[in-house]
Design brief:
The complex is a heterotrimer. Chain A is α+β, with helices and mostly antiparallel strands. Chain A has 5 helices and 4 strands. Chain A has a two-stranded antiparallel ribbon with strand order 1-2. Chain A has a two-stranded antiparallel ribbon with strand order 3-4. The relative contact order of chain B is 0.09. The chains are: A alpha+beta, B mainly alpha, C mainly alpha. Chains in contact: A-B, A-C, B-C.
Chain lengths: 209, 488, 271
């Protein structure tokens, strides 16, 4: 193997092969997927995110939430994602067509979030959890995101309706309240938008028993 | 080859040529090595913070720029694109020059590449901590610095090919195949990934496909070839025997080239992809057994009977660990890609342990070995302290063993618990805590090793400005006492 | 041998040494001196067993690729050939099945009421474990809570919980991710029989009956309204807020002692 050009050709063709198989072919098969319109329920899925949720998605990216949370449900019979209530069906490629970037994730230090909007739609819960995960999930290793909130003295009209309900050791000092900043609201809107228990032709929902 | 002087011999002329080559590499290789070491120290600090946060989440919790999602990313990019890649460049430039028997020409171009690279990476890491991460794994560096990095990579790639083009040695040694392959593959991988993921993202799940084709190939088509090229060079070089089998080298190289780059989707087992994509990557991953076993046989039979030389050679110690770790981590990788195993271990800390098994126990230890060989030759000074060498070796060996073995096990238990829907998620988290704590302790050991190495390098550089001193008779014992073939 | 004889020391060592100035190149570079020659390859033949292994792996690879690739189609997400049934759980009794399903569905509730049913005092979420509401004789009230939600303060085990609201979980066109009657029956059965709780199972028919009777209701319940609902028995319950359960009221008045009945009538007539 002393012949440079031969080496070069081999190097070129081996990468060209996988480039064709793992980049070009998936693009051909999945690159033009369109949202599905279900003729029975008139539901279009998936849909692009509305304004605040889209901004929240940028925050999800910027804070690196992706490194502890996945957004992919494994199908029934492989892993116990569905049994854990993380979704009603396995995720398919079409679920992600509007995502930039795609947050499939590769680590479950925390639970999967594909359907967190269905599982937990409560603003209250999310604000408390983001402010300090110990308030709702004792023993969690998720970091606190108190910097998404502001600590404000309570005004003369009394506590704001938006203030985060924190009890016990987590409550702010007397005379102060914790309010979510716009970023926190955007992030929670994003989380609440995460719902994908919609039937697709390639991904039927299981029949209820 | 006729001698250059009446007192010289053919061998001393060969050595004179090698001395000239070493001398020509000095500035550029030193620049890349020192930058790489700085990134290693920074990356180690980021790693310690991230590791500690994972079991003590309130630690430094008030600072957005230190939040786990960002500091972990900064760690990864600092050690991959900073330390690992920059040391790679220093090592492959030196090896290519030596094996091609040409001195490094126009160093200023390489030095420019190093400066661009460091500049780009610095603003990139700061950007990540500030929140500008792209969110794409292994490609988190923000858009404003990647063109700078790409230019630096391109300059290095072109220069390596130029060295190759002007080679004076007809025979192509196996290390040169791997180095050529690495510098040709990487620009293609990087530009495809940047184009389809960052500049003009592909639609939906196709992004993940391209992402993991890229990310796995950074490991398999850049770092693995550089590591293997180094082991193939330094192992026979230090021992003084030929590599066991040319045919095994050929088989190993071409099967790696053929199969490794199809592995990417084994990161997506169970994911939202048609079955064939996952299956094809699993098949390719299992086929990797062939090059891994071929390489292991080659290395083992070259070394067998010469294990005692590790006593005197720091290079051999680190390379030996690297070679064993390559085989072990690769086989772990093959196992991990099979659906049966992945169902349990996917998404757990087992994957993190495997990544460090490959990138640290194999790649980093190999690079340490290479640096221990190269630095005295380009600075023309000997290592000042064998105590620091020993400290470096033992802390990193014990540290990495303490990292990968418990965390692989812990990840498996984590996965088994996650498979049981009756076990609440917070219970699963609790199971991982002891392993995460052990990992932090191992990180402290590793960092200690890095500091020891850095001090030794700094001391070596200080010595460069002083008179030459004969090597002290300790770890490099045997020199000047008649045991080494001096002058031959 | 590396020489420490000063007369043969190189000038300006280390600082840009000019090799041409030295008497002997080899002298200053002991490391180079003791180096072995550049590496080269030996020519041992390939191990036969490695060739066999390669062949074997290629065979396996081809077989696996042919049979587990879903015919290379874009829509085939399962690696198993169509029609293959994956492992079936061992036979279980209907009660075990209900508890298992209910346990899985409870994941929906665990976010607030927590996996161990202890609720969350910080967020004013009452516990389910040991709760008198949960373990009541009949499930009429808790079925309603799950169907339509709960608003306002509620007294559980003597302690008042207020300020938090529970969302409705009935499956409708507006709330497609809600629970069906069967699912509500399963999760309530689970809750009534977990964490030390002991109470009767809830049947899908019961849930269906309540759901039918309250099908026009849109708002969440309040504690006051729920306390008027009989725990057991037919779906004779208020269909809308402010509606009267005359039959229930009559039943309650009839249970009063004669004296209390008199007091009640007097107090009513005084209005």
């Amino acid at each position: 193997m002393n012949y440079g050009p031969l080496l070069f050709l081999g190097i070129l063709f081996t990468l060209a092969a996988s480039w064709t198989g793992l980049v070009v072919m998936p693009t051909k098969q999945l690159g033009a997927l369109q949202p599905d319109l279900n003729t029975n329920t008139s539901v279009v899925f998936p849909k692009p995110l509305p304004g605040e949720a889209a901004q929240g998605r940028e925050l999800y990216r910027s804070l690196g939430c992706n490194y502890c949370h996945t957004q992919q449900v494994r199908r029934e019979g492989f892993g116990s994602d569905i049994a854990r209530g993380w979704g009603k069906r396995g995720s398919v490629a079409r679920d992600y067509i509007y995502d930039r970037p795609v947050f499939l994730g590769s680590s479950r230090t925390g639970p999967d979030l594909t359907n967190i909007g269905e599982r937990q739609p409560s603003y209250e819960w999310h604000y408390s959890h983001l402010y300090n995960p110990q308030t709702t999930s004792k023993g969690s290793v998720m970091p606190p995101y108190a910097f998404l909130f502001e600590l404000r003295p309570i005004g003369p009209e009394g506590p704001s309706t938006n203030s985060v309900k924190l009890g016990g050791e987590f409550a702010p000092k007397a005379g102060y309240e914790v309010l979510p900043k716009p970023e926190a609201k955007q992030l929670v809107e994003y989380l609440r938008s995460l719902k994908s228990s919609v039937e697709l032709p390639e991904a039927p929902l299981p029949k209820s028993e | 080859m006729a001698a250059l002087s009446p007192r010289g011999t053919a061998t001393s002329d060969a050595r004179a040529q090698l001395a000239e080559i070493d001398e020509s590499c000095r500035g550029s290789v030193l620049l890349f090595f020192l930058s790489g070491m700085a990134w290693l120290l920074a990356g180690s600090v980021f790693a310690l913070i991230a590791s500690y946060k994972l079991h003590a989440p309130d630690f430094l919790g008030d600072f957005a720029w230190l939040t786990f999602g960002r500091i972990r990313t900064a760690h990864l990019n600092a050690v991959i694109y900073g330390f690992s890649a920059e040391i790679s460049v220093g090592v492959i430039l030196w090896m290519m020059c030596r094996l091609c028997r040409v001195p490094l020409m126009a160093q200023s171009v390489i030095n420019l590449a190093a400066l661009l690279w460091n500049f780009g990476l610095t603003i990139g890491i700061i950007g990540i901590l500030a929140g500008d991460t792209t969110g794409v794994e292994y490609l988190e560096l923000p858009k404003y610095c990647t063109p700078i990095l790409f230019l630096a990579f391109a300059l290095i790639a072109v220069w390596t090919i130029v060295i190759f083009r002007f080679r004076r040695e007809k025979h192509l040694y196996v290390s040169q195949w791997y180095i050529l392959a690495a510098v040709l593959w990487f620009p293609w991988l990087y530009s495809t990934a940047q184009l389809l993921l960052i500049m003009d993202p592909a639609r939906g799940a196709v992004q993940a496909a391209v992402n993991w084709w890229f990310a796995h190939n950074v490991l398999g088509l850049w770092f693995t070839p550089v590591g293997l090229a180094s082991i193939y060079y330094f192992l026979p070089k230090v021992i003084g025997r030929p590599i066991h089998s040319y045919y095994l080298s050929v088989l190993g190289f071409w099967t790696l080239a053929l199969f490794y780059n199809w592995n990417g989707f084994h990161h997506l087992v169970g994911g939202p992809f048609p079955a064939w994509m996952i299956t094809i990557s699993i098949v390719a991953s299992v086929m990797m057994v062939i090059p891994v076993v071929a390489t292991a046989i080659n290395h083992h039979f070259t070394m067998v009977g010469h294990f005692g030389k590790m006593r005197h050679s720091p290079t051999l110690r680190f390379i030996f660990i690297g070679a064993i770790a390559y085989t072990a981590s690769s086989l772990q990788g093959v196992l991990s890609s099979v659906r049966w195993f992945s169902e349990t271990a996917h998404f757990t800390h087992h994957t993190v342990a495997h990544a460090h098994w490959g990138m640290y126990a194999f790649f980093t230890m190999t690079m340490f070995g290479a640096m221990y060989y190269i630095l005295p030759r380009i600075t023309q000074r000997e290592w000042p302290s064998d105590g620091l060498i020993s400290l470096h070796f033992w802390t990193t060996l014990v540290g990495i063993a303490m990292y990968v073995l418990p965390l692989s096990l812990g990840g498996w238990f984590q996965g088994k618990a996650m498979l049981d829907p009756q076990i609440p998620f917070l219970e699963v988290v609790k199971i991982t805590l002891p392993y995460l704590k052990i990992r932090t302790v191992s990180g402290l050991l590793l960092t200690l090793g890095h500091v020891a190495f850095f001090v030794n390098i700094a001391w070596l550089l200080v010595r460069t400005f002083g008179p030459y001193r004969a090597p002290e008779p300790m770890i490099l014992a045997g020199v000047g006492t008649g045991n080494a073939p001096v002058g031959k | 041998m590396p020489d420490s004889n000063p007369s043969r020391q190189p000038r300006n060592p280390g600082v840009n040494p000019d090799l041409g100035e030295q008497h002997d190149v080899a002298e200053i570079h002991a490391a180079l001196l003791r180096e072995k020659p550049e590496p080269r390859e030996g020519f041992e033949p390939l191990n036969l067993w490695l060739v066999a292994l390669t062949g074997g792996l290629l065979f396996w690879g081809g077989y696996y690729l042919a049979n587990f690739s879903g015919r290379f189609e874009a829509n085939e997400y399962s690696e198993f050939p169509r029609g293959k049934v994956t492992a079936v759980a061992a036979a279980e009794t209907p009660e075990q099945k209900t508890l298992r399903m209910g346990g899985q569905l409870y994941a929906n509730c665990a976010a607030c009421h927590l996996a161990d049913g202890t609720g969350n005092p910080a967020l004013n979420i009452p516990p389910l474990a040991g709760s008198d509401w949960v373990q009541a004789d009949g499930a009429n009230r808790i079925i309603r809570i799950v169907l339509h939600g709960l608003n306002g303060p509620v007294k559980v085990n003597g302690q008042v919980w207020q300020g938090n609201a529970m969302n409705p979980w009935r499956k409708t066109a507006e709330n497609p991710s809600g629970l069906t009657d069967e699912e509500i029956a399963a999760v309530l059965s689970y809750v009534r029989n977990s964490w030390g709780n002991k109470a009767s199972f809830v049947t899908p028919d019961e849930v269906k009956a309540v759901s039918e009777a309250t099908k026009d209701r849109t708002e969440a319940w309040t504690e006051a309204e729920l306390l008027q609902v009989p725990l057991k028995g037919g779906a004779a319950a208020p269909a809308a807020a402010g509606g009267l359960d005359l039959a229930g009221l009559k039943g309650q008045v009839e249970k009063l002692s004669a004296e209390d009945r008199k007091k009640l009538l007097e107090s009513l007539q005084s209005k």
